[in-house]
Specification:
Helices cover 38% and strands 14% of the residues. The protein is an alpha/beta fold. The strands form four sheets. Strands 1-9-8-5-4-2-3 form a seven-stranded mixed β-sheet, sandwiched between helices. The structure holds pyridoxal-5'-phosphate (PLP).
């Protein structure tokens, strides 16, 4: 039995007629850049997240970039973020010329540890950039408290967490900006690159709209230096057509995670309480917030690489998100971090393993993964 890490074909088959019609409509209109289809998608997404404005952009990376640009964050500024994320989180900070300041993660959730943020704030800190990793929201209450107290902007990297909730709040609807990605492997994936920034502030929304078209405010008149950060109409059509299905797909991810938990619980139960303290067995992901949307189902194993080999041999797709924390990336060597500086992130990098959790998995496939894990550990 083969169990891929992700199989997008099954999802397409289920909604093929809608998707093909939405794409055909754009092609028939021959309006590919911005326009009514993009606007309809932006409105639907903003409503879904619970924000006043949505500005479609070319990718999740550019969503982060344009939010930082909208705040004029640049050289001399610092942005506090997590070292355990996809590269874009820190890359966007560097791209505007600012300095990423990395704060270690909470080993239970893999998200930035709010208790360690205050120590890293300086006179140069301008923004906090928490990531809702794997689909579980970061602890936004203390993060917002620090931001309010210190007058900092909050930009949420919600690329992996569309639909996630905690304390009655939705991912992307808590900070000043929420940034999402429509990369095909995200829970709401396009047929190419795409993203969106959401905000409640009309002035910020207006600036974002200008920045994505080279800072143009009137035709050929540029108030800012922006870029070409537009969401195209074909992607918007796909996203808009998929959105009504998102909550159902997310429920299926959550159900798959729950089945893993019941099938793997005994492996996890054999270890002491401290996460990953055991040399041999498995740590399952813990949901400490309201709705974890499981963009990834990530377990920890001290002998991860061996476990992964066993799964590969059994036809099971896995991935390591992420094998090298951001503070130890070659391109950030100049920032002066050393191995051991952020031990929770470094340990996670050595132990994490993502298992298949996409909505269309069958119970048989999930059982096969669990059985293989049992024999592997
Ligand atoms: C996917 C992702 C991004 C970047 O999104 P793209 O659309 O691929 O540019 C940023 N941050 C996180 C946490 C992501 O998972």
């Amino acid at each position: 039995m083969k169990v891929p890490l992700l199989d997008l074909a099954a999802q397409y088959e289920a909604i093929r007629e809608d998707l093909d019609a939405a794409l055909a409509e754009v092609v028939a209109s021959q309006r590919f850049i911005l326009g009514p289809v993009v606007e309809a998608c932006e409105k639907a997404l903003a409503r879904y997240v619970g924000r006043a404005h949505g500005v479609g952009v070319s990718s999740g990376t550019d969503a982060l970039l344009v939010a930082l640009m909208a705040e004029d964050i640049g050289p001399g500024d610092e942005v506090v973020t997590t070292p355990f994320s996809f590269f874009a989180t820190a890359g966007a900070i560097s791209r505007v010329g600012a300095t990423p300041v990395f704060v270690d993660i909470d080993p239970t959730t893999f998200n930035i540890d709010p208790a360690q943020i205050e120590d890293r704030i300086t006179a140069r800190t301008r923004a906090l950039l928490p990531v809702h990793l794997f689909g579980q929201m970061a602890e936004m209450a203390p993060i917002m408290e620090i931001a309010r107290h210190r007058g900092l902007v909050v930009i949420e990297d919600a690329a992996q967490a569309i639909g996630a909730r905690h304390d009655g709040q939705r991912a992307g609807a808590v900070g000043d900006y929420g940034c999402f990605s429509f990369y095909p492997t995200k829970n709401l994936g396009g047929y190419g690159d795409g993203g969106i920034v959401v905000t409640d502030d009309p002035e910020r929304a207006q600036k974002l709209r200008a920045l994505r078209v080279h800072g143009e405010t009137n035709p050929y008149h540029h108030r800012f230096v922006g870029g070409n950060f537009r969401l195209d109409a074909l992607q918007a059509a796909v996203i808009h057509a998929k959105l009504p299905h998102l909550d159902r797909w997310t429920d299926a991810r959550i159900a798959n995670a729950a089945l893993y938990r019941s099938l793997l619980g005994d492996l996890a139960a054999r270890q002491p309480d401290a996460p990953a303290a055991s040399p041999a067995i498995l740590t399952l992901p813990r949901t400490v917030t309201g709705r974890h949307v499981f963009n990834q189902f990530v377990v920890r194993a001290a002998d991860r690489d061996r476990v992964r080999q066993r799964l590969t041999a059994a036809g099971i797709g896995t991935a390591v998100y992420y094998p090298l924390p951001l503070h130890l990336q070659e391109c950030f060597a100049g920032l002066g971090y050393r191995p051991g500086d952020l031990p929770n992130a470094e340990r996670a990098a050595n132990e994490v393993l993502a298992l298949p959790v996409f909505p269309e998995l069958t119970t048989g496939q999930l059982r096969h993964v669990a059985q293989t894990l049992h024999s592997a550990v």
